[in-house]
Input
Amino acid sequence: MPAVGPRPLRRLAPVPTLLAPRFWAMHLLALVLVAAAGWLGTWQYDAWQARRAAEASDLTRVDPLPLDAVLGPDDPFPGDKVGQPVILDGTWVPDGTVYVSGREHDGDEGYWVVTPLAVGGPDAAALPVVRGWVADPGQAPDPPTGRAELVGWLQPAEGTLERDQDPSDDVLPQLRIADVIQHVHQDLYGGYAVVADRAAPGAWPVGANALNPGTAGLAPATLEQLPDAGRFTALRNLLYAIEWWFFGAFAVFIWWRWTRDVLLDEERDEDPAVAGQ
Amino acid sequence: MKKLFNSYRVLALLVGVLLAFCALVAMPLKYLATDGGDLQQFGESASILWVAHGWVFMIYVVVAFLLSRRARWTPGFTIVALAAGLIPLLIFWVEHKVTQRLRAEHPELAPSGTVA
Output
């Protein structure tokens, strides 16, 4: 073949060729495959998250332990005991009742009603207990007094930089021990509890069996922090999700190779000089 | 070509064994053996190999696709070769077929020993 001057090795046909109706079926197939793989991957990914959330909430239904077996008055919060059900036996400190703002219940914003419970004697260190939720502090029933025995889910104290803007009232923006301690005359534990409305099967002081839990007239509060699910929980779903997305990407790759082939073929058909190659 | 061909054969064998084990041993045990029995438990835990199959199959698909381009398989045969990783036992036949064809077209791929 005589030299005809420099020319690109592979000159592709113009891209609009690909938009010809006879190729629509292939484009459609590629779209369907990518969409299907993407959807299946998302489905597995959601399943992964859902199963982990389910396991985390199962962990709140392990057998309750006595509080002193988990957390002492001066102990730092044990990181692996988030959401651990504990049996609380003590005396309410009604004067220490506070309301924590910005808490949701069924989509409504309201307040947590928190009353410290002196664990042991009335002057012993107290654990703030979230008794429930109320839309407005004015509607909250009078705090309970006297002895109580109940099961609560242990939670680490909250603490961001959000300060209590008005320390003189009973409303706090966060359940911070440093803020709650302004409202009581005793020491506080380094965490708080949410009154449990269910527990593992057994003779636990939960629900109707709880003694003076102070939940009457309040909606149950939801846990802010659930325990961590195990690292390998539902890992299979995550691996499947990655697989599906990989196959989606592979379908795109094949489609791209195919478009190149089509464009090269068109070029050969139009240019006999290339056809001989 | 030789590397690709060898990788393909190893992957095909792996996918084939994993798929045959999962589909023909683990799955029937998991669903058909007496609930809670040893065999059923074994089937249940062995089902984790489905994940292994999926991941090896991913690599298999890529290698098979590259090989199909290099060896200029027809689109039909390419699809059969790719899908063979999902149908129990089919892949052994496909692998045999691929080996025969490639060796016929590329004598250098013959088993070592016959060709230096």
Observations:
- Chain A touches chain B through nine residues (CB under 8 Å).
